[in-house]
Amino acid sequence: MARTVTYKGHRIDAHAVPVPDAEEGEWAAHAVIRVPGPGGSREQPLRDPDDRIFATAEDAEGYAVHLAIRWVDRHSP
């Protein structure tokens, strides 16, 4: 399952990734941000720096979107 949103011209693909060696049903938040540029776009992978664990895939995806939006706000004009 994945969630895709566009924010300030950046495409955000948010993913819930099962946590290896953890209880069943534990998920981590990952995102890939497509950063537009003059020569085309590049991909910026993004993980949660605090390695939070979520009980549902939906919560992990929502948090991945939140992290990506914060990244875009800090790194785009």
Explain how this protein is built.
The structure is a single chain. This protein is of the alpha+beta class and 77 residues long. It has one domain (2-75): Double Stranded RNA Binding Domain (2-Layer Sandwich), CATH 3.30.160.350. The protein is built from one helix and four strands. It has a four-stranded antiparallel beta sheet with strand order 1-2-3-4, with helices on one face. It is elongated and about 45 Å long. It starts with a strand and ends with a helix. The model has no long low-confidence stretch (mean pLDDT 92).
Chart the SSEs and their pairings.
Layout: E1 2-7, E2 10-18, E3 27-35, E4 42-47, H1 57-75
Antiparallel strand pairs: 1-2, 2-3, 3-4
Specify the structural class. alpha+beta
What spatial form do the alpha-carbon principal axes imply? elongated
For the biggest sheet, the summary is: 4 strands, antiparallel
Lateral strand order in the biggest sheet: 1-2-3-4
Span between termini: 31 Å
Number of helices: 1
The total strand number stands at 4
**Helix coverage percent of residues?**
10-25%
Summarize this entry quickly:
The protein has 77 residues and is of the alpha+beta class. The protein has 1 helix and 4 strands; from the N terminus they run E-E-E-E-H.
Which key terms come to mind for this protein?
single chain; 77 residues; alpha+beta; Double Stranded RNA Binding Domain; 4-stranded antiparallel sheet; 25% helix; elongated
